[in-house]
Amino acid sequence: MARIGMRFAAAHPLGPCESTDDLANALNARWRDMQWGYAELSDEHDFLRIVHHAAPLRAFGDGHLAWSSAFLEGVYQGWFDSVGATGLRVTQDVAPPDDSRIELRVARATN
Amino acid sequence: MSTSRDIQSLFKRFGGDAGRYHEVRAEADAEVARARWPLLGGVELRESESQGQPGSRSPDGGNSLRKIVLTDTRALPASTPDAGTRNQMPGPLKKLVSRPAASDSADAQGSSQPLVRLFERLRTEETGDAPKKPSVWTGRS
After folding, report:
1. ipTM confidence
2. Conformation bin of residue B36: beta by default, left when phi > 0, alpha when psi is -120 to 50
3. Order of strands across the sheet with A88-92?
């Protein structure tokens, strides 16, 4: 799923982003086009947190959320790579209890 | 009267075996979801896909997720959901998923940072105390 997400990101480029506002606007414009929820970015100093709200991943089934959310991980990795986040890795922050709020973090790759 | 007793009563009245009753609502809900979010309709559930990790970016890109999924799963659903059904979402839900988060307080909105500086800091800076109130960006113009 993460690989599919990466390819999706490549097929739906964000365009030029210079600032965090640009990035948040571009991300949400893409999600809004598809009605796939919306994202918030927050600077946690050591990492950047992405909170993705209202992704319709429940359609895969409740038991599949642990891996289906990897799609978002791949999409954000692709998009962040495209705006210069080389060397940073997008990972799922905690296992989501439901698809209403999925948290990911962008931080320095450790390996 | 509970749903199960209601069904039992119906079968008793019209004949048949209530034990063979099959609830189809979940399937119907899934169908509606696939129609509403065409992106889901193009994804085939396969156990092996759950093992995927972010890898190298596709060199050729693609024009749609459907094309991407075709490449990855070598399978497509028989029918293509009508994109027009996207607009059939009930008003309040459409509003919820179509707009970025609106923070209650303008104070929660962080001042924009240059991405270059932010990424450089994340790449190089040692871990330390987090700020008490992190900057938040919601994409709200």
Report:
1. 0.86
2. alpha
3. A88-92, A101-108, A48-53, A38-43, B136-137
Which residue range(s) make up the domain with A93? 2-108
A63 touches chain B (CB under 8 A): no
**CATH assignment at residue A75:** 3.30.70.2590
Q: Please give the structure tokens belonging to residue B140.
A: 């709200």
- Condensed to tens digits (0 to 9), the pLDDT of residues A3-15 reads 999 999 999 999 9
User: Which residues in chain B (53-82) have CB-CB distances under 8 A to chain A?
Assistant: 53-58, 61-65, 67-69, 71-72
Whose structure tokens read 């698809």? Answer: A99
Pick the more confident residue, B31 or B40: B31
Q: How many domains does chain A have?
A: 1
Task: Please enumerate, as own/partner, the contacts of B25-32 that have beta carbons within 8 Å and a separation of 24 or more.
Answer: B30/A59
Identify the top-confidence range among A26-30, A101-105, B101-105, B137-141: A26-30
Give the closest-approach CA distance of B14 to chain A in angstroms: 34
